[in-house]
Amino acid sequence: MATESSTQSLLQLKCPRCHEGPLFTHSALNVAHFADMPAHCPVCAQTYEPEPGFYYGAMYISFGFAVAVFALVGVVLYYLAGDPPLWAYIVSVAVVTLLTTPLVYRYSRALMLYLFGGVSYAPRGARPANPRSTDR
User: Fold this and answer.
1) Could you point out which of 5, 73, 105, 113 has its C-alpha 20 to 30 Å from the C-alpha of 95?
2) Inside any domain, residue 1
């Protein structure tokens, strides 16, 4: 079932065009394949890579997520753990970063596609019968 909200479909990692097809082929918990994306949406055939090297820009988004993780872990440790020694900060940030890597990777790519992919939502009735014949 399609969602009308682009924000909701972004959070659910769905296609930006139809809000139905998944952006990734496997679960984020599948360590070997959490980064696998199909070439096209299985529902509307929207291409997921508008141009070669498109997702290099997602590195900047993931950097922003990493800074947020570092800051959040630092603040939590400082206030809840009573400013522990430096090694506790380093270990905590490393563990949280490793555990959130699949999510940061996925949401960085999804944000890149939604914000800069040039794709807008088109409900089922507004899409042409053969989606591969349109501009993507």
Assistant:
1) 113
2) no
